[in-house]
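User: I'll paste a sequence; please echo it back and then give the predicted structure.

Assistant: Echoing your sequence first, then the prediction.
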Amino acid sequence: MTGPSRDVGVIIVAAGASSRVAGDELKQFSWVAGKPMLLHSLQTFMAQPDVGTVVCVLPQRYAGDPPPWIFQCDVDRLLISVGGRTRSESVANGLDDLPDEAQIVVVHDAARPLVDAATIGRVVDAVRAGTSAVAGLRVVDTLKRVNDNGDVESTVPRLHLWRAQTPQGFTRQVLVDAHRRARAEHISATDDAALVERLGLPVRMVRGSERALKVTESADFARAEAMLGLTE
């Protein structure tokens, strides 16, 4: 009996400068819930049976000499790529380094260390069904549009609003085309789905997870620890 086709390539974007986290250590290398933040995502994606390669995109000064803990996984399926000047450039570099077998590409931010297998599966299933996909959650709070002085200008209807997370999934050709057009038009984005939307192609929102919080500031590390504790 043959195993599952490993046609999924993963790009974990970990090339940020961590400017909103105190201290000299890069945020993506800081420990949370028992291990470095980046390692959480790396090991979770490696555990998926259809993942053939995981590319970790690191800052240039670390790409040639990664921290040793990054190799606590299947090193035969691990590649290290060099980050660019922007997030879009970093993703494009990781995309260039993926082997040809990766015909489905999943992009994930290292700042979301508690991504779970169920969310990954929903994203990949949607791509296999024929559409790009973004993990996310419905907006449940009332939203206010506020001016620079802090004055409320209006209330924003939330009926069709979602909070986009990662992972985000695409066929390889769609993502290549989206980044090629973005480069030609000098466009950068914090979200790969936005580049695909500019091609006029459909993108489907699939259910994400409250656990997949984005660790942005120092206080978020404690929140991530608490989230993990709730599921143990």
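The chain has a mean pLDDT of 90. Residues 172-184 form the longest helix (13 residues).
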